[in-house]
Specification:
Blueprint: H1 2-7, E1 9-10, H2 21-32, H3 43-63, E2 70-73, H4 75-90, E3 96-99, H5 104-115, E4 120-123, H6 133-140, E5 146-148, H7 162-172, E6 176-179, E7 198-202, E8 213-217, H8 243-258, H9 260-281, E9 286-287, E10 298-302, H10 308-317, E11 320-321, H11 337-341, H12 346-349, E12 352-356, H13 363-379
Parallel strand pairs: 1-11, 3-4, 3-5, 5-6, 6-7
Antiparallel strand pairs: 2-8, 7-8, 9-10, 10-12
The chain binds pyridoxal-5'-phosphate (PLP).
């Protein structure tokens, strides 16, 4: 903690956000007592069950769902897998349509479904990373088992037209899944306002602990489970529940959502200042997805001529933590599949860097990046 608070500038919230104080508070009772198994009938079990159901109801309230529509999972990846593969297995042989800019948790699930006999339809995006609605319409003609388009992209922050896509899917009688891992707590994510059937969430992206997630499953949406066991989570996700994680997730989601509007106005202004300052100081810098409605927390920049790995290392030496593309891909030599799908040429897609801001980000953090970045970028080959 001292590392983060005292010396470092942490601008990698989209990889993982620092634990929020509400989430920490919610975890503490489970470290000392409250260890019961929620399936046990005795008082220890009932105590754990009450905490789990409280967490479920609170998370449901944040997104406008009924508590019975929340399935706690082991992280966002598992929620995405359950949505995509769970639907594919409901309708064997039917296509699975996912956007080209999905997180690997969705893309790899769709590829796994393809290997099992579900034709894969990749939905293209425009130059700002927004899914083309015409492609959704075309895909719906083949009545896919599921359409999966994320709410907000994790690399460039582009918000997707989930309302329009959901309406089209509903009219066609096709299940619509959206990976809302990066959207929760940053933009309104309400199932009573957007026609969506499945939504994936991850606690650690909203200031909860790692290894906890949830899948919203609209009542009536049929889903094949991926795991088999004791029947927990209505058979959708068997295995003794992570009660502490669920409680901390609910607390983090509530906290982030309660202050969402003020926090996002503040963070968006910092992000804009960061982008304006870098554009001025490093000629040739391109802000990716700048023309799309975007999360206020993410800035994805192409720095022509720069070596992105050296750039990240140089920034790290100065105490600044950022990421190239998505964290899950760092170390990969190929340019990001998201930037490639947006049609960004290799010489710009390669040297790209993502800053992601969040609840701990300050004006001083941004000032420090503006002070250090031009020097580091020039050292690693930026064309400026
Ligand atoms: N979906 C998106 C959009 C993400 O950004 C991530 C995290 O990188 C995930 C899914 C996976 O979530 P988790 O890390 O909880 O498995």
């Amino acid at each position: 903690m001292g590392l983060m608070r005292d010396t470092a500038v942490y601008l990698d919230h989209a990889a993982s956000a620092p634990l929020r104080p509400e989430a920490r508070e919610a975890l503490l009772p489970f470290l000392d007592g409250h260890f019961g198994n929620p399936s046990s009938v005795h008082r220890f079990g009932r105590d754990a069950r009450a905490a789990l159901e409280d967490a479920r109801a609170r998370l449901a309230r944040v997104i406008g769902a009924a508590p019975g529509e929340i399935v706690f999972t082991r992280a966002g990846t598992e929620a995405d897998n359950l949505a995509v593969l769970g639907r594919a297995r409901e309708r064997p042989g039917a296509p699975v349509a996912v956007s080209a800019i999905e997180h690997k948790a969705v893309l790899a699930s769709a590829h796994a479904a393809e290997e099992a006999g579900s034709p894969l339809v990749l939905l293209p995006v425009d130059g700002d990373g927004v899914v083309r609605l015409g492609a959704v319409d075309a895909a719906l003609e083949a009545r896919p088992a599921v359409v999966s388009v994320m709410w907000a992209n994790n690399e460039v922050g582009a918000l997707q037209p989930v309302g329009e896509i959901g309406a089209r899917c509903r009219a066609a009688g096709v299940a619509f899944h959206s990976d809302a891992v990066q959207a929760l707590g940053k933009v309104p994510v309400r199932v009573d306002q957007v026609p969506v059937d499945l939504l994936a969430f991850s606690a650690h992206k909203v200031g909860g602990p790692k290894g906890v997630g949830a899948l919203y499953v609209r009542r009536g949406t049929r889903l094949h489970p991926l795991l088999f066991g004791g029947g927990q989570e209505r058979g959708m996700r068997p295995g003794t529940e992570d009660v502490a994680g669920a409680a901390a997730f609910a607390a983090a989601a509530e906290g982030a959502d309660a202050e969402r509007e003020t926090a996002m106005a503040r963070i968006g202004a910092l992000r804009d200042r960061l982008e304006a300052g870098l554009r001025e100081a490093v000629p040739g810098v391109v802000v990716n997805a700048a023309g799309a409605p975007r999360l206020p927390t993410i800035s994805n920049l192409s720095i022509p001529g720069a070596d992105p790995e050296l750039l990240l290392m140089g920034l790290d030496l100065e105490g600044i933590a950022a990421s190239s593309g998505s964290a899950c891909q760092s170390g990969a030599v190929e340019p990001s599949h998201v930037l490639t799908a947006m049609g960004i040429p290799r010489e710009l897609a390669g040297p790209s860097i993502r800053f992601s801001l969040g609840w701990t980000t300050t004006e001083d953090d941004v000032a420090r990046v503006l002070e250090v970045f031009p020097r580091v970028a020039a050292r690693v080959g930026a064309a400026g």
